[in-house]
Amino acid sequence: MTHAQTQAESRFDRGQRALSRIDGRAGEKVVASLADIAPDFARYVIEFPFGDIYSRPDLGLRDREIATIAALTALGNAAPQLKVHIEAGLNVGLSRDEIVEIIMQMAVYAGFPAAVNGLFAAKFSAHDGRQASGEAT
């Protein structure tokens, strides 16, 4: 086995651990559904975002999810990914109220349509069978 293969497997293993910790079953379902279409791309999703970026030490997972939720909201066209990361935010300690505030903040920078779409994604995102609408955990 070459050094590059060992390094790639290390990225993959690190990415798998991060994906499970952050996104849980929702992330695993996304990767599994991609594997049927483009197995190499499914592997890239594990290695780069989760094995390389999310695993970096200088920013915590909670802060990374705040940034991700804000960015996906600002895009305005990434509702499926936003829903997964709203769940991830809840998994890493964000409250429903914090998620709503993050999304509302994006109205200033990304516009009201993007924020409204983000709030609808939060409304329909179920965590432990409840709506992400300010309900206590």
Automatic annotation (TrEMBL):
Annotated source species: Bradyrhizobium japonicum
The protein's name in its UniProt record: 4-carboxymuconolactone decarboxylase
MF-aspect GO terms: peroxiredoxin activity
InterPro entries named in the record: 4CMD/NDH-1_regulator, AhpD-like, CMD-like
Pfam families for the chain: CMD
Domain of life of the source: Bacteria
Top-level taxonomy: Bacteria, Pseudomonadati, Pseudomonadota, Alphaproteobacteria, Hyphomicrobiales
Domain Carboxymuconolactone decarboxylase-like span(s) in chain numbering: 39-123
